[in-house]
């Protein structure tokens, strides 16, 4: 028998009230937990840090807080490499943006500090791996539709939070979406993110081939529209295990992918594309940004699309929606780890007073030694642990022992 609409309205109000109360409690808990995390950090011996992956400026290590035993990922950036390759500004921007964000759908920065040779970002450890691994390397290629919808909803929340702070992500792709131990996803790697005051636009080319919007390729002025385009590409990829304008393992020049992006329409040949999915992707992939979902001046909201009809966003934002998949706690979900070559310390690069001033600005707190902020990882504490943020580590069983 149909439920009375007045009862349904009342239930909706009650549901939102419960969700909002839980949200406020979660925010307070997050701030309290952050203070605890920052008080538990100690100075490590760098030789004890286990390297999980390497990038252009440094490596990512698994680390452990001495007193709490909490595991983190530490992104270590070589100071001399940063200076030689002109990466100081990007490193500082990433840190400043991570400082500003406060969303369960964006990876949390626990601390930023410097050592004599490195700048370090300590972030949540995401044991579920990245979406790219789940799409291509875990069972049959592509994801089940319930996972596609769930992850897309959380990504939308993360993007909307960034946009509310006038931050453009500019690197939305499955590689940068990480899953935590509960199966919920977070946006990571904000190295290309930029903060733009309201009313301002930019035309800088940035991003990854296959995910860059037409306005980026044409170097037209843009704001947040580029993130919605990239999300459309990501939703397509989660379903079809390929990009909309580049097939799986297709050998093709970047220039051809860019041409297709500018001129071609996406094809929906995979059997799992249903009508709501095709529609939301089509609307995200409008060539003209003014017609793109999320970009209309009348404030169209992607969360209201039929694709998300089964998602209660109030409950989702406070963790009350059960994830469709949860990682096993004794596995790391990622590709095989290879031997990493040491990153050059760039001994020929001299650091001057201007550099030291920048390094101090990067650090969250006192890095002089009065407050010791680094973390400890020992081979006695853990055999292999967690997911790296630059590159792809191994899918390995991990063995943890009690920290002493």
Notes on the structure:
By secondary structure, the chain is of the alpha+beta class. It folds into two domains: 14-127 and 333-404, Phosphorylase Kinase, domain 1 (2-Layer Sandwich), CATH 3.30.200.20; 129-317, Orthogonal Bundle (Transferase(Phosphotransferase), domain 1). The protein contains eleven helices and ten strands. The strands form three sheets. A five-stranded antiparallel beta sheet has the order 1-2-3-5-4. It has a three-stranded antiparallel beta sheet with strand order 6-8-9. A two-stranded antiparallel sheet has the order 7-10. Strand 2 and strand 3 form a beta hairpin. Mean pLDDT is 78; it is low at 1-14, 38-49, 337-344 and 365-404. InterPro entries: AGC-kinase_C (IPR000961), GPCR_kinase (IPR000239), Kinase-like_dom_sf (IPR011009), Prot_kinase_dom (IPR000719), Protein_kinase_ATP_BS (IPR017441), Ser/Thr_kinase_AS (IPR008271). ATP binds at residue 75.
